What we know:
Layout: H1 2-16, H2 19-22, H3 30-43, E1 53-61, E2 64-67, H4 69-82, E3 84-99, E4 102-115, E5 120-133, E6 138-148
Parallel strand pairs: 1-6
Antiparallel strand pairs: 1-2, 3-4, 4-5, 5-6
Amino acid sequence: MEVIRQAAIGLALVIAVPAHAASTPDYQAAATTLAQYKQAVENRDLSGVETLFAPDAQIFESGGIEGNFAHYRDHHLAPELKAFKSFAFRDYKVSVRGEGEVAIATETYNYTIALTNGETIERAGVATSVLKWTGRKWQIISLHSSSRKPKA
């Protein structure tokens, strides 16, 4: 009788706790997705970067709506990166918090762009990203970044 009671309790627990609730996503791993994107920008090589973004992700930059990542990549980011001799981040910090299957990240950084014409651009930037856990990996569903000239 005791064995049947224990089996019934075990079965009740299995039914009561959904499978997805048993494994909470690693929110800090969302920072890895952002680091991969940052690295691609620094390398000026966007090969495969679209996998870091959900197909319907929305990109916002410095007051503009850039559309999904494919549009942003093709009409904004890739052409810019071609005009750069180098792109380097420094003083990079990221903070991530989680809400269920969503991670919210804030990044702060400074960056230097060397243009192919020899000009150098210095900026301070901030980005807020929302990432969704797909069950296998984090994907960016919203990215909003802005920058300005650093204070003297």
